[in-house]
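Dock calcium ion; give full complex structure.
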Amino acid sequence: MLLLTKKGVKCMDIKQLDNFAKEIIKEAGERIRKSFSYDLIVETKSSANDLVTNIDRETELFFIKKIKTYNATHRILGEEGMGEAVQSLEGVVWIIDPIDGTMNFVKQHRHFMITIGIFIDGVGKLGYIYDVMRGDLFCAIEGEGAWYNDSPLRKLQPVKLEEAVIGINANWVTPNGKINHEKLISLIRKVRGTRSYGSAAMEIAFVVSGKLDAYLSMRLAPWDIGGGTIIAKEVGAVATNLNGEYFDFLGQDTFLIGNPTVHKEILTNYIEQL
Ligand code: IPD
Ligand code: CA
Ligand code: CA
C-alpha cells in the first residue's frame, strides 16, 4: 500500500515502513540491554524525579540517524530534543520516546519501553510499544489491526467500572492543584483495583491488551502516548484528554485512555479539573 502526504508526495509502502520501524526498534532494544554492562550517566531535567541518561540520548540519536538515512524528509519529534523543532505534523513525523520509564530503567532494570508513533499529515499510521527487557512488541497499522508480537489483539469488550483495574499514579490521589483528588479517591474505592507501573507507554500497552481497563494522567507529552494511541484505535480503546477532546500532540496535555465503557464513566463521574 502506498501512502500520499497532502502535498501528493509519494512517500512509501506502509508495510516496508513498518518492517523498517520494527527492525530499528529491536536493534535499539538490543543496544539498551547491552548498556547494562557499562556505566550509566544519570542526570535530572525539570525536577529531581525527571531523569535522563546517556542511553536515552544515545538511543534517540540512533533512531534519528537510521530514519534520516532511510528517508531524509521524515521529521523526528523526540523527547530528548535531538531531532528538529517540530511545530506541525505535516508530512511524515516520527514521535519517539527512546526510553519511557527512565526511572524504572535506572532503578529496576525492567519495565521501560521504547515507544514510537509514525504520523502522516497528523494522522497516526503506525504505532509501537516495545518492552525492552521482555522483548515484547505491541504494534498497530492504522485500519489493519493491532498485534502483541505475532498474535492479533482483540477488540476490547465492555467492563463494569466495579470490575475494572485502572492505572493511576498515587500523586493524583493526594491534594494537588490540577484535579479534585477526593473524586479520584471515590473512583479508587469503586474499581476492583489500581496499578502504577511508572511507564505511561506500558500502562497504555496494558489497556490495549485488556490487562488494565483505563489509565489516566494529568500531564503527559506526545512521545509518551503517540505510538499507544495508534494501537488504541485499532482495538476500540478511547484515548482523549480529560476534557474528552483530542490530545494536543504539539504540547503537553492531560490523558485518559480506556475501554470505552470505563472511559465514559470515569470522564463523566470522576473527573473535576481544578
Ligand atoms: C514518564 C513515564 C511516567 C509518567 C511521566 C513520564 P519518561 O516518561 O511515562 O510513567 O508518569 O509523566 O514523563 O520520563 O520516563 O520518559
Ligand atoms: Ca516518557
Ligand atoms: Ca523518555
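Observed: The chain has a mean pLDDT of 94.
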